[in-house]
Structure formats: C-alpha cells, structure tokens
Amino acid sequence: xxxxxxxxxxPELAESPRWNGFPPFNFVGGHNDEASVPVEALRAAADxxxxxxGRTLGTYFLQSxxxxxxxxxxxxxxxxxxxxGMSADPDEILLTSGSLQGLDLVNAAMLTPGDTVIVEESNYxxxxxxxxxxxxRMVTIPVDEQGMDVDAFAAALARLKADGVRPKFLYIIPxxxxxxxxxxxxxxxxxxxxxxxxxxLPIFEDECYSDLIWSGERPPALAALAPxxxxxxxxxxxxxxxxxxxxxxVAPWAILSRILSAKHDAGSGALEQMVLAEFxxxxxxxxxxxxxxxxxxxxDALIAALDEHFGASVEFSRPPGGIFLxxxxxxxxxxxxxxxxxxxxxxAVNPGREWSKGGDAGRWIRICxxxxxxETIREGIGRLADICHAExxxxxxxxxxxxxx
Length: 405
Hints:
Layout: E1 25-26, H1 39-53, H2 70-84, E2 93-96, H3 98-110, E3 116-120, H4 127-133, E4 137-141, E5 143-144, E6 147-148, H5 150-162, E7 169-172, H6 186-198, E8 203-206, H7 222-225, E9 230-235, E10 247-250, H8 253-261, H9 270-309, E11 315-316, E12 324-328, H10 335-344, E13 347-348, E14 350-351, E15 364-368, H11 374-392, E16 403-404
Parallel strand pairs: 1-13, 3-4, 3-7, 7-8, 8-9, 11-16
Antiparallel strand pairs: 2-10, 5-6, 9-10, 12-15, 14-15
Helix pairs in contact: 1-9, 2-9, 3-8, 5-6, 9-11
C-alpha cells in the first residue's frame, strides 16, 4: 500500500541524503587524526572508572546533578585556569553533547526573533544558519591576520547605538579562529572587552580549537578578561575525538541557570563524561602535545602539496594551530563551483561562501588537513589542482613558488 508519510513532515525541512561513506580525499568537517586517538588509554580509563563508579549509571546525572559529571567539571576548571587564565567554578560549567549543542542552547536561552547579533565576517559556517533560524539579524565585522577588526567593531557599535539598536551579544572565535586559524593578541582582546563594557554587550566566546596550538602558548580567554559578561563554549572533540560528543559551557550562574533550563535531554552522554574525566586527569597535556605535533606535520604536508601543485596562484597564512587552512584561489576561480566539480571526483573541500559573508568569499576554500595522511593530502591536492585547471584554466602547470601572507 502506497502512503506518502513525507507529506506530514514540516515543509521547510530539506531531505537529508543517504550517507555513502567518506570521499577518497576528504578535506571537510572537523575530523581529527585517527592515529592520535588514545585508544588504549581510553580503554584503561573506561575499565577503571566503570569498576569504581559504574553503578551510578543507574541514575540520571551520575549523582552529579544536571550540570554533568562533577570530576570532569573539576578537571575543566583547573585546565581552563592553567591554559586560559579563567577562574571557572565547577558549578558554573555545563557539560553538553558537543559544542554544537552549546551553541544551540545559548541561542535558545538568549535570542528572540528580531534580535541583533554581531559576528565576525568570516566565521564558523554553522553559526550563520543557526542565527537565521533563530530569527536574528547579523551585523558582520571584517577580520584580518589578528582576528576581528576592532576599529570596524567600534564603528558598528556606534552605528547601532545611533539607530537605537542594542545587540544581544557578540559571537567571536578569538583563539584559533575558524576558518582563518588566527590567534587574537592580548591588546586586541583588551580593546574588545573595553568596547563591550562601554556598550553593555555580552560576549559569546567559542574556543573549540584552542587546545590545538603548536607552541602551547596563548593569550587569556575573553572569559578571563571579562567573566561577568562572557559565555564561553569549548569542546573535547578536537583535543580527544570528535565522536565522543562532549562539549561545555562556562558562564555566570545568572545566565547558565537559564541555559540549563533550555536543556531538555535529561543529561548528555554520561559514559563519555566518566571516561574523559578519568583519562584527562592523567593524560590530557601529554596527549594534546603529541596530537599537535602530528597535526603540524600534516599542515606542513598540505603546504608542501599546495606549493607543488598550485604554486604562486594561491595565497594563505600559515596558522599557529588548528586543523584547517584558509586558502585564497586565483582570480576567476569560483570556489562553490570548484567544490561541486571536485566532489563529483572524490575531493571534498569547503567553499568560502559557507564560511564567510565577505565580498570575495567566492575565491576562498577551507581545507581540513587533520584526518587524511600525508600521501593522501599530496595526492588529493594534486587532483584538486588538476580539476581547478580543467575548470578554470588555473593554476598553470609548473607554477612559480607559492605566495604566503
């Protein structure tokens, strides 16, 4: 019997395609280096914590309350103090099902249709549709090699004030920016905080990639400089493993209590939290240092491949951390078209218009290098160059040395 059950779905929902596996040359998504996943240490951590506390799985929240497993929150408080200068109270940390749930919870708790949000012009691709679904108006601020342009931010705040508009918050990625990979220096962070205080503006700080810094050194988080007005989101997806789906929100209780009231899932995955707490207490710093060495080697392989196959026709800045490279393509190349054609031939890249609202976004691509091996990176970039040449006539075969900025 035929029955069109799809007719009963909400009409604005698009159909999701069936998954047919990853492409041979996968340079998209937040996947990480599989060889660096600490499998044996995670197995040992799981055995230890389940042997000691496994029966607490018989209750919701593991007897730690709705904020999540307390030992993991205590680890985070100490780690954020040491690494980011934050004075985080474990009782002002909410564990979430990845940082994406954190973004959704903050938006649900703080936004109503018609609100204005200030965002960086080039940004995490997932934030734009999320703010659109929330009915928010976005005011975009350009970014440069040091992060968000503070003068442009100040000018935007002045215009909004003159128009009688009070933005709901500033959404910003100051540490290992997505997609540019930049780390905002301290003086610029201090200027941004001063402007937010002057205009009574909350800060929504996204620090998902802040553990992935080659030198291991970074400025203090905005939440360290302005804890009274900052909602800080982070994740274990990039430092340990994406599929674990454990993120966190750090915020003053006055707003975290509202965010918690929007979390209707009876708690995020408890077993993952238990295993992470056990693992991180003993291994986090040494694991992250090892992971960063592996990721930097892959970045070097990607840069060498771009040098070999694209030469001087592309431009980029070598990031100080992260898992992606933001690459400017030659004049006349449309990255959306390039991504479409490349996907048909097994090469997946992120076109710039998904990650930037800038006028030249169509000339940029984001290349994620963390998951493929060095030889796959080299072969995939070679194939991408051949596709680009066939479609747009560039790069010229045997191009000159690459140009970096």
